[in-house]
Amino acid sequence: MRKPESSGKNNNNNMNNMSKMRKGLWSPEEDDKLMSYMLRNGQGCWSDVARNAGLQRCGKSCRLRWINYLRPDLKRGAFSTQEEDLIIHFHSLLGNRWSQIAARLPGRTDNEIKNFWNSTIKKRLKKSSMSTPSPNASDSSSDLIRGLMYMDSSSSSLALNHVIDPLMPVFGSGLTVSSAHNVPTIFMPQIGMDGDGFYGSSHGIFGGDVNLGIDKDLFAPPLENLSTENNAKTENLINRSSNHTNFLNNTGSVINHCNNSCKIENIEGFETCWQGEDLKVGEWDLESLMRDVSSFPFLDFQGE
DNA sequence: AACCTTGTCAACCGCGTTTTA
DNA sequence: GTAAAACGCGGTTGACAAGGT
């Protein structure tokens, strides 16, 4: 953490605009100013926010403070096991696209997830890579971690061949399961983000009505519904990933793989849903994701 | 008690992309 | 069409806390 810079320090230098900008930790007064301004006026141009709220901060700094700290919908505290698992799942899919991962974990920020990954998960993965994995270990996180660790660095293409659909989260509530070297990895479905509602059952591009031929019991609830009463279901969901082979067979028709590219038009209901000029696909860029799929960093926690 | 090491996390920086004038 | 401004993202830094020696 950085110490809040004293105003005196700033005043020592020339008085151009940049030197007037405060840096470092936010004081409670600044927080108050920003918070009350945002609650009164909502989000606008950030440099206007900074100016109008009477803050000697750049807009960028205000944006960051709001997003990472002041936003009322932020969840605080340690990550739950479910969240941890989801982060691992999504990281296996998306790599270091922290903002996209964060969009799927309500109340969490990209910065928070990034820090958590870099401090906790990465080290744990590193640790577990040192020790021989125990086949009897039962906790879901370690299973998943081991699953990821088994992917050997020379086999990304092999792994890719087993990924049914890296885009599945877009398609409403769906679950995909992949395997690499016979180690199951779940790709979790979209968890109810809202905002523009790209993923919600009523707003998603498939409106939740798409029939993917997937066992509905496999569908995970939105994260905010992952209360303790649902833990058993979540556990079950994770455990069922071990049946991935059958699952793969059942859903193989969903995505037609050809030369590492996926054709999504084979998804039942896709064509009708895909029409419309204003179609939004969340922050996903299908085309680039299709292209980028070969660069998914399945292995980026290795060899550091 | 003092020093060192490690972990955590808020905030900054630089860069690419998007929007606006 | 273009330049500038704003935005958003991922990587990195550095202060602080906690634990170890």
From TrEMBL:
Start and end residues of each stretch annotated as Disordered: 1-23
Gene Ontology molecular function: any one: double-stranded DNA binding
Superkingdom per UniProt: Eukaryota
Name of a matching Pfam family: Myb_DNA-binding
KW Oxidoreductase (keyword) present: no
TM helices/strands, residue ranges: none
One Gene Ontology term from the biological process aspect of the record: regulation of secondary cell wall biogenesis
Residue stretches making up the Myb-like domain: 18-70, 71-121
InterPro entries: Homeodomain-like_sf, Myb_dom, Plant_SW-associated_TFs, SANT/Myb
Name this protein carries in UniProt: Myb domain protein 46
Gene source species: Actinidia rufa
Subcellular localization: Nucleus
SMART domains, A to Z: SANT
Domain HTH myb-type, residue spans: 18-70, 71-125
Keywords, in A-Z order: Activator, DNA-binding, Nucleus, Repeat, Transcription, Transcription regulation
GO-annotated cellular components: nucleus
